[in-house]
Write a structure and sequence with these properties.
Strand order of the largest sheet of chain A: 3-5-1-12-9-10-11
Distance between the termini of chain A: 69 Å
Strand order of the largest sheet of chain B: 2-1-5-3-4
Number of helices of chain B: 5
Shape of chain A: globular
Largest sheet of chain A: 7 strands, mixed
Structural class of chain A: alpha+beta
Oligomer: heterodimer
Strand content of chain B: 5-15%
């Protein structure tokens, strides 16, 4: 039988990106490129204290204050909370502030220079209250700053009986691991434009990942009916999670100013404000206790995982969930207990960032397993080979893996591609007489696609497909193009399903006034979950045309075009909608946190080659190989682009990106001193896919976007350990930390 | 001399078009391009000369327009992303960016394209180190740079093919 994928004409081919031409010519319109008549600029006045009680607000300086639109909590027409999971975060602090970037007053004015001066002249007197700034202080309840115990959420995953393993174990190995915050650093800052009035409702245009999240938040903020709120995505210059929940805040702010002034209001953050005030990756702390047998089999894993959520709950519960479920990795272990907590501190809320908790817990696990292997006297690869999960075995949540997972195959391929073992020996020889110590290391991991557990069932995402009178097909979905290629892969999937040309498919701009809620653009779900709905909605169009007798099963593109025209002439608009239904056999128990956490996983082995300079203590990545299985690859160039970009962010996370905190505030909130990798820093990133089509993904595809964020950090630290013989268990790893670990002294 | 409002007259050429600007002398060239001339292809990423999203060419030199007070461009030839293509005909660098996946979210792309065009003007066949150095002032958060390097290499190949073709087409050679 011929492989189905060989017959595909559009899926699997590097078709040109839909909006590519606009992007390379500068014609693509981002929110800051839009200008509305009579538009005002908006600014946010924030707390200067990490925690306290607002005593007074006054307006100083020699400024024409009567020209300014001024909004405080008292001007909010609906409820003063950013609707997400919990309703704890206000749009504007009314009485108390809980972090040092908390918004209190909004200003708008036609002159943005005068606006900036005004912002500096709003005086907010705050009586300060004791605050806490570290995960440890929060866990130890040095001060209670949220709820009764500082805890946003806890989970407990329990498989087998880990307590009984300690006695039977030949070795028990413990370790602690820490990761720092990371800024998404999309190159386009957060921004929106709003128009609002009681008669017409609220419309916002902006840079965003999740139009319907904003829609939900504005409903509550304004107390308006659903059809009075409209959210439109403008071209979005990167998101990485940083435009998942935060745009609900800035959209609300612009809309409040527009509501009060009756004029369009634009708020676009500058880089310093964006870095300081918006969400970052959750810092984390993980403790492992692992029981193993002498022959290198995992008997029990006890994992404690804690993330710092910042001042409000935002998405911490779900970030924690993903981190928890990924904490035991792609290994089979009969007894597992994972206890996890998300806790509060007085920093701006941490939020979604590519990987969503998994990079943190996978970092800990993949560093820890190297320690376990070392104590057993096994190589890291041999220890993993003895414990990799196979089809039919269960994950930590007792999910039976029903796909042909081949971690050994991925490991073997990654080792061949890097000449791993030969290099390891050569480096050991070279390192003896060199100031430059070279090393090689790897990490093996998986990443679940789509919302966790019952998430997709609750979302009930819908996608539409609409035939145009020219016989083209327009996809209607709220999934946003943020650089990853949504427009392109949706068009490929629909074209393939309908046997039409790629150019015959359009993708509508996400606009809640025009597209159904296909859920947020997060969680590696756009291709696998929403793409599947695109496929079935597109097929629905064909089915309707066939059922009406306007099209036969074997048709050409002109036949299809004619059939669409005839249908529209006879019956009017032709649309087809498809709603998510879980694939058969997916069961999840939210109470026990047990079952099928994800419909499918992507699997990977990443290898890093590094050099550590023993005089400057700089670590450099020289080569990086990423081998993964993500189901069918829809677009080879876009898919490789996802992996390369994710690995580069992972390298940044590991060796460059150090958020420096001062009393809950990011103090290096500039690109000058928060460093991301440049063209000069990035090693060759070599990407390889194994394809194993997933039965319930569109054309066999699974999720891909977050996976590459998981592997770089542990692979690099494992390589640094291989190079220097020293084990370091925290990131970001700055030269000063390497110096300290290697026992160097300051000159 | 500044007028009563403090504005001055600046004459320069932007994308081959002569322009007379009435602007504050210390206004950032970036803002003048985006707001006065509505050339919004040039982007602001950081406002402090780190990210290169606002890259333009002034008299053939690659600069961050967020760091240039407009008074410095009196008499200068400025090229922005809007001036890179010739009508509907894309520049080879732009075509290569599309073909190789060099643009993802697209926000760094105008600056990156300008930097790549400038690199190829200075160094028609750059090696890898020269490509990396030539683009090191332009930050991209999406691609990990690999596809951008590929695009630059492809652009060199296509421009040398184009030159060879032209060469062949000339009669008598």
């Amino acid at each position: 039988m011929k492989d189905e994928s060989e017959q595909m004409k559009i899926v699997g081919r590097p078709v040109p990106r839909k909006e590519g031409r606009d992007k390379v010519t500068g014609q693509a319109r981002y929110v800051d490129d839009l200008h509305f008549p009579e538009m005002l600029y908006g600014a946010t006045v924030r707390s200067a204290e990490a925690r306290g009680r607002i005593k007074s607000i006054s307006f100083g300086g020699d400024l024409p204050w009567d020209e300014f639109v001024i909004v405080t909590a008292k001007d909010i027409p609906g409820e003063n909370c950013v609707a997400l999971i919990l309703l704890d975060q206000p749009y504007l602090a009314d009485e108390f502030v809980n972090h040092p970037e908390e918004p209190i007053v909004l200003l708008a004015h036609p002159d943005k220079y005068l606006l900036e001066e005004a912002r500096r002249n709003v005086r907010i007197e705050i009586e300060s209250l004791p605050a806490i700034f570290s995960l440890r202080d929060s866990v130890n309840q040095k001060e209670i700053v949220w709820g009764e115990d500082n805890v946003f959420k806890t989970y407990m995953v329990e498989k087998g009986n880990v307590d009984e393993t300690w006695e039977r174990a030949d070795f028990i190995i413990e370790g602690e691991y820490e990761t720092g915050a990371q800024e998404q650093l999309y190159i386009e800052n957060n921004g929106v434009i709003a128009i609002a009035s009681p008669a017409d409702g609220v419309t916002v245009w902006g840079s965003m990942q999740c139009p319907y999240y904003i829609h939900k938040a504005l409903l509550k903020l304004f107390g308006l009916p659903e059809d009075k709120i409209r959210v439109v995505q403008t071209e979005t210059g990167g998101g990485f999670g940083g435009k998942e929940e935060y745009p609900s805040m800035i959209a609300g702010h612009a809309a409040l100013l527009a509501w009060k002034s009756g004029r369009p209001v634009k708020i676009v953050y500058d880089r310093a404000e964006d870095m300081a005030a918006t969400t970052k990756r959750h810092p984390s702390w993980t403790k492992h206790r692992t029981a193993v047998t002498r022959d290198g089999k995992l008997l029990g894993m006890e994992i404690e995982f804690v993330v710092d959520g910042g001042a409000y709950a935002t998405l911490s519960a779900v970030v924690l969930s993903r981190g928890t479920i990924h904490a035991a990795g792609p290994y089979f272990c009969p007894n597992v207990r994972i206890k996890s907590r998300a806790v509060a501190t007085n920093a701006p809320p941490h939020g979604a960032f590519r990987g969503f908790g998994a990079p943190q817990s996978i970092f800990a696990l993949e560093r820890h397993l190297n320690k376990v292997a070392r104590e057993l006297g096994l190589s890291p690869e041999e220890f993993r080979r003895r414990n990799f999960i196979h089809e039919g075995e269960t994950t930590a949540t007792n999910q039976v893996i029903n796909e042909k997972v081949d971690m050994e195959g991925l490991l073997n391929r990654a080792f061949e591609l890097t000449d791993y073992q030969a290099k390891q020996m050569r480096f050991a020889e070279l390192n003896k007489n060199s100031r430059q110590k070279k090393g090689i290391g790897f990490a093996s991991f998986m990443h679940g696609a789509g919302f966790t557990g019952s998430g997709e069932k609750f979302l009930e995402s819908v996608v539409g497909a609409e035939a145009t009178s020219e016989g083209r097909v327009r996809i209607l979905a709220a999934s946003t193009e943020i650089g990853q290629g949504t427009n392109t892969i949706f068009a490929q999937i629909a074209a393939e399903a309908l046997h039409l040309d790629y150019d015959a498919i359009e993708v509508a701009k996400p606009d809640t006034g025009n597209v159904p809620n296909s859920g947020p653009t997060v969680a590696s779900r756009t291709c696998m979950i929403v793409g599947k709905l695109v496929e079935s909605a597109a097929l629905g169009l064909k089915q309707t045309l066939v059922n009406c007798g306007l099209l036969s099963e074997n048709y050409t593109q002109p036949d299809f075009e004619r059939a669409c025209r005839s249908y529209i002439e006879q019956y009017g608009a032709l649309k087809s909608f498809s709603k998510y239904k879980a694939p058969p056999g997916i069961n999840w128990d939210d109470e026990k946190y047990e079952g099928d956490a994800y419909g499918a996983y992507a699997w990977a082995v990443y290898v890093a080659e590094v050099t550590v300079d023993m005089v400057t203590y700089e670590a450099r990545v020289d080569d990086f190989v990423a081998v993964q299985e993500v189901g069918k690859v829809i677009h080879p160039v876009l898919a490789a682009g996802q992996i390369e970009g994710g690995v580069a962010q992972g390298i940044g996370y590991t060796l460059f990106e150090n958020v420096v905190w001062g009393n809950g505030r990011m103090v290096n909130n500039q690109m000058t001193n928060y460093i991301i990798p440049t063209a000069a820093d990035i090693p060759p990133i070599r990407v390889f896919f194994e394809e194993n089509p997933y039965a319930y993904g569109p054309a066999g595809a699974k999720g891909i976007g977050e996976l590459p964020m998981d592997g770089a950090a542990p692979a690099i630290l494992n390589a640094i350990e291989n190079a220097t013989g020293v084990s370091i268990n925290h990131i970001p790893l700055m030269p000063e930390s390497i110096m300290e670990a290697l026992g160097g002294e300051r000159a | 001399m500044p007028d009563a409002s403090g504005k001055v007259e600046i004459n320069c050429t932007v994308n081959s078009e002569a322009r007379t600007l009435h602007v504050f002398p210390m206004a950032r060239l970036l803002d003048v391009l985006r707001e006065e001339l509505r050339l919004t292809g040039t982007k602001e990423g950081c406002g402090e000369g780190e990210c290169g999203a606002c890259s333009v060419l002034i008299d053939g030199a690659l600069v961050n327009s967020c760091l240039v007070p407009v008074l410095q461009v009196e008499g200068a030839l400025i090229k922005t992303i809007e001036g890179v293509a010739t009508g509907e005909q894309l520049h080879v660098v732009q075509e290569a960016f599309i073909a190789c996946g060099g643009a993802q979210c697209g926000i760094c792309t105008p600056g990156m394209v300008i930097a790549a065009v400038n690199l190829l003007e200075r160094t028609p066949n750059p090696n890898e180190a020269e490509i990396r150095a030539g683009l090191a002032g332009n930050l991209c958060r999406c691609t990990g740079y690999m596809k951008i390097f590929e695009a630059v290499v492809k652009a060199c190949q296509s421009s040398s093919t184009t030159k060879t073709q032209r060469h062949r087409e000339e009669p008598g050679i």
